[in-house]
């Protein structure tokens, strides 16, 4: 049964291989002139013994092999590699600016689908873009004398971006509350129409678009809050925990992974 598990064989293939192999016969304690059990015999024995007995035999075999120093179970070596995600190099300012733009776009999707149409939503994308461009301009400064001043300006502008992102997330939460209320009203109306036998295909598709936009905005607000929190932490002089750090808006599971490569000291993706 160990050979069957190890080499992923069926019962008939297992019996045929054991019959043809001297090494496998010795492993199974079957003499050269002895007969190999029939496949149906192995099936019946396995069913009769059950999984608990097989597991117990395997544990006993492992303990005996360890005691005889055939196996060394005190050390384990694992090799990992990085599966990169389709994300651009993440910076705090870049992620904040993207989050603000996507909040504005998703809010317009919600209102276009008929949700919270009277809720005022301010588009802060231009203000975020100006601050992101200002950060890039400051970082490209080659003046050594003004380097400290440029870094201070970058930190100040990043803080302003974090303030904008928090305000945009707060506005988005208010929009979400009103949009969910509108979605509940639309679903109640659809239920009433269904009771009368009326058909509302276009309205149903519109409700579907509204529901999807609401889900997208909820995920986006959660990501924005997380990115803002880790930006505040970095501005305070602390390094965010890499195991929970958010590096992408569309891929929440991507993480920064340092493998020590010369060309790419830090990669972003998943460890495999």
UniProtKB/TrEMBL annotation:
Record's keyword terms, sorted: Coiled coil
Ranges in coiled-coil conformation: 169-196
Region (Disordered): 229-249
Transposase InsH N-terminal domain location: 1-47
Recorded superkingdom: Bacteria
Signal peptide, first to last residue: none
Presence of the UniProt keyword Ubl conjugation in the record: no
Pfam family membership, one: DUF772
InterPro entries, per the entry: Transposase_InsH_N (IPR008490)
PANTHER family: BLL1974 PROTEIN, IS1478 TRANSPOSASE
Protein name: ISNCY family transposase
């Amino acid at each position: 049964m160990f050979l069957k598990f190890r080499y992923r064989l069926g019962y008939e293939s297992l019996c045929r291989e054991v019959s043809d192999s001297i090494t496998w016969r010795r492993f199974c304690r079957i003499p050269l002139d002895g007969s190999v059990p029939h496949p149906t015999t192995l099936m019946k024995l396995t069913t009769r013994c059950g999984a608990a007995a097989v597991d117990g035999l395997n544990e006993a075999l492992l303990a005996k092999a360890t005691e005889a120093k055939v196996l060394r179970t005190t050390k384990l070596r694992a090799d990992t590699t990085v599966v990169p995600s389709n994300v651009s190099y993440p910076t705090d300012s870049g992620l904040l600016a993207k989050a603000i733009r996507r909040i504005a776009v998703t809010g317009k999707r919600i209102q276009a689908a008929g949700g919270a149409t009277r809720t005022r939503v301010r588009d802060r994308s231009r203000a975020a873009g100006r601050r992101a461009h200002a950060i890039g301009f400051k970082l490209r400064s080659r003046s050594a004398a003004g380097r400290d001043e440029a870094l201070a300006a970058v930190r100040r502008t990043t803080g302003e971006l974090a303030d904008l992102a928090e305000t945009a997330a707060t506005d988005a939460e208010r929009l979400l509350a009103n949009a969910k209320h509108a979605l509940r009203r639309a679903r109640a109306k659809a239920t009433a129409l269904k009771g009368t036998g009326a058909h509302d295909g276009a309205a149903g598709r519109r409700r579907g678009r509204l529901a999807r936009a609401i889900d997208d905005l909820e995920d986006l607000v959660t990501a924005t809050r997380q990115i803002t929190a880790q930006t505040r932490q970095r501005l305070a002089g602390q390094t965010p925990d890499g195991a929970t750090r958010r590096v992408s808006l569309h891929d929440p599971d991507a993480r920064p992974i340092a493998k020590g490569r010369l060309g790419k000291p830090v990669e972003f993706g998943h460890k495999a």
